[in-house]
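TICKET #2291
ISSUE: user wants both folds in one file
ATTACHMENT 1:
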Amino acid sequence: MTAQPFLFITGMHRSGTSLTANLLCQSGLALGDDLLEATPDNPDGHFEHRPFVDFHDAVLGARNANWYEPPSPEVCRWTTSEDETARVLLADLVGRGGRGAKDPRATLFLHDWARICPAAHFLLVWRPASEVCDSLRRRGDPTLHRWVPFRRQMRALGIDRFNARLAAASWADYNARLAAFAGLMPERCLVLGVRSLTARFEELAVALGKRGFELNAAHAEAIVRPDRLQSTPRRGCVRANRAARNGEIEDQLAELERATWERAVP
């Protein structure tokens, strides 16, 4: 397996991982040559290497699961065959010059990636729960929208088809895994709140430089558009996340982020 440092960029969907990957890619981090196409909800691109995404989806599919309702961490652990496939995918990407990979689904497989790639580092991106929930609502993903009768009438009455409880539970699952992993392997992880991305990007480039990644942060201001991260979540999203007690995980991530930058930039 590669002895070169390799960076996994991950976090819950709609947490700013694409924006973070965009900045790093423009700063010189090679993320693969078979990236997913841009979409209306990510007009600048996803920066996800297609074979990695397909692999993660296949692992979830083999367990009759999906990205928004993943199985437990124990069930997510790879089989021998999946382990071999992952090693081949990683070796192929590195052999073609790749130095990193971004996919929110990698959150579900952090321990296996860390095991098969001892030179891997992990950039764990998080965003407040209600903002993620609202971003998922605005994206209109059918997997998170319930079927309701008399749709127009329900909308007129302010009844939203968006399943805020499921989105809040998914946020909790992903971010609890991030926090647990960062707590176990602090020396291999950088925890970054996307709200701090612009202010900390030069520090991030320095921290990654110390880990063997040669980056030029000069493009950061040209790429970041603050309006991309602005959000005023609907009350349903706020209530669902409050009910799920996601604020406790947010506090834990904020503390891990503080500790990250105390270590990275003394």
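ATTACHMENT 2:
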Amino acid sequence: MQSAIPRLAFPMGTFTSASEGEPHVGLTHAAFSILQTRGSAIGRAGGRVEGGLRAHACTIVQTRGKSMLRSMLRFAGIAVAAAVISAPAQAQVGPKADEVVAFVKKAVAHIDAVGEEKAFADFSDTSSPEWVKGELYIFCHGLDGINVAHGGNPALRGKNVVGFKDPDGLAVNVLIFEKVKAEGKGWVEYKWPNPLTKKVEPKAIYSEQVKGKYACGSGYYK
């Protein structure tokens, strides 16, 4: 009696096991169509997944790139801001000759307007934004050598300043007295400690003779 050939069920057809020596594989057209359809669906799904992964990866790269760019721009902005904040301190330009001359003439006019005593007190008030502006301040020496006003060092008032010398040995106030006695006004130069930098630097002083008994002036570091 011939044994039955084992068969596997498929929709609308059968698959005959080749292990039993059957020369025919019975894969019906409908079953084959199902496999093709499902295989195509799987392929399309896989393509969508792969495409989605690529798009996601691109999004991540773009996002991280933008984040890095923003970080770099922030850093650059901070650097620029720091540079902008520090530049005035490094490249600050002090008062120049024309500003000093105008400042001294303003002081002389102030003496005429309010009188010597009030004006000298004003010039020596270190909290005055009008008469003390960093390295720019007014001093007045009597031609007898006694200081009567000093915006840079009010402690000098009433003291003899004739003997003051710069590091090169120049008697700085003698130079000022000689200039205003001979010409009524003018410039002298010497070296003096800058109260802002704490360094000895060249300084130019402009002075005018006031009321025939004072030398009032101001200056700037060169």
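RESOLUTION: both attachments delivered.
EXTRA DETAIL ON ATTACHMENT 2: The chain is about 45% helix and 20% strand.
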